[in-house]
Task: structure prediction
Amino acid sequence: VMASADSPRSMAAALVRLGTGPATRGVRETEVRSLGTVEVVPQRTQCGSFMVAPGAARSWEPGPFVASVLVSPSRLGRRQVLLGQARPGESWSLELAEDGRPRAEVTDAGRVRAALGDHPLVEGAWYVVAGGFDPASGVHVSARPLPFRASWRSAADSWVVASDGASGKDGAPPGIQGPPAGIAGMLEAPVVVAARGQPDGHYVDCFDGKLEAPQLVEGVLAPALLDELARGGLVERGLRCGWDFSRRLSRDGVSGRAVPGRGAAELDGVLWNTPTEAVTGHSWDGSEQDFRLAPHHYGAIHFHSDDLDDSGWRPALEVDLPSDLPSGAYAVRLRDHDGQTTDRAPFFVRATTPRAPLVFLAPTASYLAYANDHPVSDGSFSEAIAGRTPVLYEDDLLLHEHREWGLSCYDSHLDGSGVCTSSSRRPLVNMRPTHRYHVGPWQLPADLAVLGWLADEGFAYEVVTDEELHREGGDALAPYRAVVTGTHPEYYSTAMLDGLERYLGCGGRLLSIGANGYYWRVAFDPERPWIMELRRAYAGSRAWESAPGEAHLAFSGELGGLWRHLGRPPQRLTGVGYAGQGFDRSGWYRRLSDSDDPRAAFVFEGVRDRVFGTAGGIGGGAVGQEIDRFDPDLGSPHDALVLATCEGLTEGFLRCAEEVSFTLPGTSALLDPLVRADVVYVVKPGGGAVFSTGSIAWSGALGVDPALTRITRNVVARFCDPAPLPW
Result:
């Protein structure tokens, strides 16, 4: 368990089992055992992505060299480093000044010599930026716009950026005289791309934007060399070290952190904090959208000053779990001895030997997508979506203050680009049992209400997470007769979807107790499975949209986007799929004629009312937040039973974005019959079955609405019964 505090303090630690009451805002937990006292100290987090190539064991011969890189900046207005080296007492760097002008700098024993370009760069345009470091003639800097292709922006290609004055030696741009002679031979120091290394091991002045083909070349910065550099790629002659980022791209995508080096030194680089790869480079012209088919068009990496994949904290304590600990949701609780501060680091325990008939499939991929999102402090239309004034909780303020803990896949980077990756190796403040979203319980807190209800009802269950489903496929679920999903399993990898379909095809039974599931395709880094990637491609309810040419997932090479647009709509899997959302007030259900079908008699056993779900802890009813409908045109089985549909929805419930082809009025639940939630029961050809509730707010009505509670109890009990279901 990693922990940090603003100041050193002693905390009492305990292992607790988690659960939540159906209509409570608090936490219901059972202490398993005390873990003693833990000393928690402040810990620093390194934000920003960059590349470090460790230095070699020998030095270069002293002499002039040129550092160059292809640059497309995305956030100017501050000092940021493109490429450099540093060792005690001396350094050189190629960077952008606060006003966006290119700058080359040498430091020696505290003395700074620098050359500054004439013109600032333009955000979104491509340039070759080069710095010349010559013991004889001084420091030089130059930049040239690259030909406009399919980039968003272009700068005029008639100027060359250089320091002021007449041309220097051999036609090179003028510079500042007299750098130390040894600076050109500093190979043993690490080469850092997109940041500046500090003596304390941290990195500052991280770059925002795309970089391509960083390299160090022997010789002076003459026009002929600048012409060659402007053609893109690594030079053939005089290359001391360089990195072709497109070499990381393969048919299976990219993984890990290593960047192969080229040149005389062959220095391999290491990426930090997972910058975005499989992005368009300087030569992309729109002719190919798949980076695997034209890797030379995708030779860039998009670095961000707020990227994070691992906080790098030291463990505060380690816990050996008892071998007989039952499967379930747990946390390590840290609490001040005066009781003023409490925090919980949650985790799930899987059964070593599955014994229960029922398994809860924890949607941890969706937890990652939402991890540390800022819907109120950063969202520009949170109030419009919620249909009411959003509530700011302490967690929102904490995340707003501590940006160094990383962003969610619903946030945008400081340069405006969408956040494509999320990692579990950092504090996940909203993955806490006490957290409340601005529209109510969401993700883990809502799912804990389901687990608490299962425990109250006496159902024996175990837990499997998305990680196991992704890694093991249907085998992770095979020991169980029935699966209960989380309330919002929105993000699914191909392996996860394949595994769930296989489970149902082999006779498994699924109680889909939420909505808007199986919606976005995601991928995980094969070498670092705690990092998930998402591309929001061109449609769907999305906080941002992937740039043109960047819809393919880097980790897998697959086309990203909605599963619906990839030929695998959720309606085909569960009978229902995303129809719309609304957060102001929840509605209820009314039974339809299919509910009287003998095949569904077990569902409504003991339930006389035709209306149910009129009470609940989320919006006052069972139909709310996000909702799914039955739709044969989108893959819902024609032989499915539509047991109930919703009533009582408001103007705040609007049709899902992917189904609104034109900006027309009349897409709210008051006018649009397709904005609705349906309860569907379907038996699969292989004997498997699915019961779908069509609403995230269903979980808030468990234990509150008697009829809905009885319906859910009936379905869980029957799905755990090994007797075949009539088809």
User: Anything to note?
Assistant: Confidence is low (pLDDT under 50) at residues 156-172.
